[in-house]
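Practice problem: predict the structure.
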Amino acid sequence: MDSLLAAIQNPQLLLRVFVALAVMATIVSLALPYIEGDSLGDRMKSVALERDRIRMKGRGDLTESAKHAKLTSTDLMMKDIVDKYNLAERLDPKSYKTRLLMAGFRDQKYEIAFVFYTFVLAAAGLFVGFLYLVVFQLIVLPFFLQVGLTFALGFVGFKLPSIYLSNLSTNVRSL
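Answer:
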């Protein structure tokens, strides 16, 4: 026991032991990557396989979305109304089509919905304004002011889809 205590207290022996441990740790840390082997090839292969799987899934989703891109019954109803009353030609086709493209809507169903809702919201604004101001007379105003406010509500309804598109296109540009 005395000899062990003397060896622990010997500074030269402690220095040799720590130097030997440091050399051994250096050799192990340098040799370990060569001993373990190269896993980069396996990782690259698994990443390539995963990327191909994701790409095939995306292509499948694209073909599936193209199948479902047909107009639904609601879209067909809106298209019938737009075509029947020739509403698309009553708006400036170039301006709303370019605004739709800038907002990211490139399909025909978005054009139909935009034209449809532009006229529906205008009619709804006129109807609500007429009921609220003229029929129920909840606010007592002169007749011509009531009619003017009714038309103003119709105009606001007419402009709401355009405002929505403007906000979307600025958001798309900011991304």
